[in-house]
Design brief:
alpha/beta, 9-stranded mixed β-sheet, single chain, binds alpha-D-ribofuranose, UDP-N-acetylmuramoyl-L-alanine:D-glutamate ligase, about 25% strand
């Protein structure tokens, strides 16, 4: 077995209600169903990579409460490594309040990262060897920035490939961007980080140029109905969306990142990996939920063969 992918990110419990529409500010609407399940962008991406066949270690932080069991039970059932699941005595396990509109498959999400906002420099230090020996370190924006930057420094010094999925969108300082090998925003996050409104190949290329100028080595922009764009600075490509019947788009970006990282860890190039990410994202939206909706390797390969 080669070196593992290390996902250093959030676990939160997804509390998901399905409705016939999204409420307006101040409005109460009746929902149709409710589910509680494993979520959080870091955990979702780790699950996606694991189901896609990668050797993955997730580092995340839980509280010492009932909700922590949602994570532990899920990882046990999946056969995932739990050696680096940290615990916080003071803060609660994070939650996400999610509303999925059944008419459009779109969603609204509020994330409360809880314990994932309290990862200390000591916690990161305990993971130093794990980080240094990874093939890829995959990060998002649902843990505290201080921990994130400590992880990036260790990975960068060890020459480990760093993928940053900048979700949810927050400003990223130049000192961090210059250490990133691959940034993977969606079109909204790309706009927040570059100021360029992304809706076509040309605008994706323009946003990518802003990232490249700031020192990011490769740029991947997931563009919803348009597909996914990638550039390494010399070659650029937009892979069209694979058409599926979407019933829940929550976690589509996480599926993309997990499938994409798995393919890179197996030695596929940026553009081949883009296709794996695209197929993984397409399959995830055909099921409800986030982590439980991540597809298995056979399903991804089958969809790629058919398209
Ligand atoms: O990307 C989807 C995820 O975002 C959900 O699982 C929710 O937990 C939020 O973190």
């Amino acid at each position: 077995m080669g070196k593992p992918i290390v996902v250093f990110g959030s676990f939160v419990v997804d509390l998901t209600g399905r409705t016939d529409g999204l409420p307006l500010p101040g409005q109460t609407i009746l929902g149709k169903s409710f589910k509680m399940g494993a979520g959080g962008k870091g955990s979702n991406q780790a699950v996606a990579a694991h189901r896609a066949g990668a050797d993955v270690t997730l580092v995340t932080k839980l509280g010492n409460d009932m909700l922590a069991d949602v994570a532990l039970d899920f990882y046990e059932a999946e056969g995932m490594c739990t050696d680096y699941i940290l615990r916080d005595e003071e803060s609660a396990t994070g939650v996400a309040l999610i509303i999925v509109d059944e008419a459009t498959a779109q969603n609204e999400i509020v994330v409360i990262p809880g314990a994932c906002n309290h990862i200390t420099r000591d916690d990161v230090e305990k993971c130093r060897t794990l980080i240094e020996q990874a093939s890829i370190i995959l990060l998002q924006h649902e843990i505290n920035a201080d921990a994130q930057s400590a992880v990036i420094d260790i990975a960068y010094q060890a020459g480990v490939q760093i993928i940053l999925n900048p979700a949810p969108a927050v400003e990223v300082p130049g000192s961090i961007l210059s250490k990133i090998d691959i940034i993977t925003p969606n079109e909204t996050e790309a706009q927040v980080l570059t100021g360029v409104e992304v809706h076509t190949y040309e605008t994706a290329e323009r946003a990518a140029q802003v990232f490249l100028k700031k020192g990011v080595k490769n740029v991947v922009i997931t563009m919803g109905a348009m597909g996914a764009f990638a550039t390494d600075g010399t070659r650029s490509e937009l892979v069209p969306r694979i058409k599926v019947d979407a019933i829940d788009t929550t976690g589509a970006g996480d599926a993309f990142n997990g499938g994409f990282a798995m393919a890179l860890a197996e030695g596929k190039n940026l553009f081949e990996a883009l296709r794996y990410g695209n197929a993984t994202g397409a399959l995830a939206v055909t099921k409800t939920g986030t982590a439980p909706a991540m597809p298995k390797r056979e399903e991804i390969e089958k969809l790629l063969r058919e398209n």
